[in-house]
Specification:
elongated, about 65% helix, four-stranded mixed β-sheet, alpha+beta, 4 helices
Length: about 120
């Protein structure tokens, strides 16, 4: 009995991981303004799966971009969470870990303690 449960759990984990990768790939298509703001040090990725303002004095367009990107991410994470029967926070955290890991050198990332660091 133990083996089927573990196998099932492993399949769900892989499905969740694959779904998260699809979400991340879909975001690449509209990433130019986001990448520009990241490169300028105005925003950065957080381990929670969302972008955050690094520069609180960033232009209003950047602040609106953060809200828009995070709203779209929440919608996508919620869809994956519902489909996979996983908590939204787990889906977001999995995506966040990958986004932070993939952030290029010179960009800011927000760690789990709430501190910014430049990669």
């Amino acid at each position: 009995m133990e083996r089927p449960f573990r196998f099932s759990k492993l399949l769900r984990w892989h499905a969740l991981w694959f779904s998260t990768l699809i979400v991340l790939a879909a975001q690449v298509a509209s990433a130019a303004p986001l990448d520009d703001a990241k490169s300028a040090g105005q925003i950065g990725e957080g381990v929670d799966g969302y972008v955050h303002l690094v520069d609180k004095n960033a232009p209003e367009t950047v602040k609106l971009l953060v809200k828009d990107v995070n709203a779209k991410r929440t919608e996508k994470y919620a869809g994956i969470a519902k489909t996979r029967g996983a908590p939204l926070s787990d889906v977001a955290a999995l995506a966040g870990a990958k986004l932070v890991e993939r952030a290029p050198a010179g960009q800011y990332v927000l760690d789990s303690s709430g501190k910014w660091r430049k990669k």
